[in-house]
Amino acid sequence: MNNNNTRYQQSIAAELIAFKDRIRFFIDDNHWGEDGRYKEIILMNYLRRVLPDNAAVGT
Asked: How far apart are CA 59 and CA 52, in angstroms?
């Protein structure tokens, strides 16, 4: 993978990590179930943006 592709993938990973951490900063360690659900929603929304129209994302 060339350097631009690697940097692109790293930026996506950093974005997902930032989203993931936001809920933890807000709710702390009190609601692990909600933390997990939030992470699922982040991943579903990301996949819906990048997958082709003939692919679906469910729960």
From this structure: 18
